[in-house]
Amino acid sequence: MTGRAAVGRVLREAAVHYTDPAHPPGCLIVSAAVNCGLESAEVEEAMRALRQATKAGIGARIAEDVAAGLRPEDTDVDSMAAFYAAAIQGMSVQARDGATREQLERVADLAMLAWPEGQCPLAEASSSG
């Protein structure tokens, strides 16, 4: 699975899970401990680390595409990872504010439209084969 497919899947699955009526809307990791006092600093740091790990995982998938020749070598992996992490986090907040699964699926679709086009020569050569 390409990084693009993986990120798209994560976004679509977020739309499903964030709106599942079997549990509170959104994502606890996204919304927990974002505005805490000193007494909760440890929890706040743990949640921040989990959010950063998610962003790093997205970046790793994008970097794999670069290494495989599916993305140009000058791809701004960190910025792309930050953008898609922000989309996931925003979807969580939207779900907490009452967004439906269908609305979040549309957000996921729109976020994937922002995936930069362009391939490196290796990818173009293998697709024309």
Query: By helix and strand content, what is the structural category?
Result: mainly alpha
**CATH topology term:** Tetracycline Repressor, domain 2
Helix percentage range: 55-70%
Please give the radius of gyration in angstroms: 17 Å
Query: Unreliable segments (pLDDT under 50, ≥5 consecutive)?
Result: 120-129
Assembly state: single chain
Please tell me the overall pLDDT.
87
Alpha-carbon distance between the two ends: 20 Å
Can you summarize the main beta sheet?
none
Count of beta strands: 0
CATH class: Mainly Alpha
Shape: flat
Order of helices and strands: HHHHHH
Label the CATH architecture. Orthogonal Bundle
Helical segment tally?
6
Portion of residues in beta strands equals: under 5%
Number of domains: 1
The name of the CATH superfamily reads Tetracycline Repressor, domain 2
Keywords: Transcription, Transcription regulation
Pfam families: TetR_C_13
Organism: Streptosporangium carneum
Protein name: Tetracyclin repressor-like C-terminal domain-containing protein
What does this 3D model show about the protein?
This protein is an all-alpha fold. The chain has 6 helices and no strands. Mean pLDDT is 87; it is low at 120-129.
